[in-house]
Design a protein that fits this description.
- This protein has one domain (9-232).
- It has helices at residues 8-14, 21-40, 45-53, 59-67, 71-91, 100-105, 111-116, 123-141, 146-153, 160-168, 173-201, 217-226.
- By secondary structure, the protein is mainly α.
- Helix 2 (21-40) runs antiparallel to helix 8, helix 3 (45-53) packs across helix 5 and helix 8 (123-141) crosses helix 10.
- Bound molecules: zinc ion (2 copies).
- One zinc ion is lined by residues 57-58, 60-61, 122, 124-125.
Length: 240
């Protein structure tokens, strides 16, 4: 009997809900982590060191961190980051020397700008990326479990970025084929819904037909192509 990885049942349950299951679990785990940080780890030295090195959180997680309503916790960590930034400001020249190359382009060198750049990613983004890879690997490698296979077939599929991650996590060609085959069927159904939406929206063809399941297909399609808001930001572009 295969040993099931941590998160297998979470994935199984989440596949029954609308949208990409990996996006939803990633968001859930990120929220839990931010709660844990705020209520248990604000004075924890490794957490404080990470916040200093990452210069705080990314824009998305900064906004959600403030929504947790633990003002004192947020204050302690923001104070650490500001202390780090001010220490760098005190010690580092804002502008470096000119070189011939820079004179020609007009661009200046700023040691301060370089020093202020984050040395590590946002602590929540870092944990979230690990979680996404883990759930994608669980899906990719355990589709031979009849329960997961059925749940995935009946689901909305995973979003395009997580489909790519899952394919990268497959360990053999049979698993990759199975994963791709199911996702292809799901996307074919979604495309048929988009086509039906367009057909019914066409004034020439319209015969008072009411919209059915395809009524929000355009919205679901955008989310399933781009991933859920808050999971994929503009920092997840090509080559990153
Ligand atoms: Zn996703
Ligand atoms: Zn982040």
């Amino acid at each position: 009997m295969t040993l099931l990885p941590f998160g297998f049942y979470d994935l199984l349950d989440q596949l029954a809900e609308p949208g990409c299951a990996i996006c939803a679990l990633a968001r859930r785990d990120a929220d839990k982590l931010m709660d844990t940080i705020l209520y248990e780890q604000v004075v924890d030295p490794p957490t404080q060191e990470h916040f200093r090195a990452s210069r705080g959180l990314c824009a998305e997680h900064s906004a959600r961190f403030s929504e947790i309503r633990n003002a004192l916790g947020v204050c302690v960590l923001a104070d650490q980051v500001l202390d780090e930034v001010l220490t760098i400001l005190d010690k580092t020249p804002a502008r470096g020397g000119q070189s011939l190359g820079r004179l020609l382009t007009g661009a200046g060198d700023s040691p301060l700008a370089r020093k202020l750049a984050p040395e590590r990613p946002c602590i929540v983004c870092e944990a979230q990326a690990r979680g996404e890879t883990h759930y994608a690997a669980t899906l990719a490698r355990h589709l031979n479990d009849a329960r997961l296979d059925e749940a995935f077939r009946l689901s909305d599929g995973v979003c395009l970025p997580h489909f790519v991650t899952a394919l990268e996590q497959t360990t053999d060609s049979a698993a990759a084929q199975r994963l791709a085959g199911i996702q292809r069927n799901i996307w074919r159904r979604l495309k048929a819904e988009l086509d039906e939406f367009m057909r019914k929206s066409d004034a020439v063809n319209a015969r008072g037909e009411t919209m059915d399941i395809e009524s929000d297909s355009w919205r679901r399609a955008m989310t399933l192509l781009g991933g859920e808001r808050g999971v994929f930001g503009r920092n997840r572009g090509a080559g990153t």
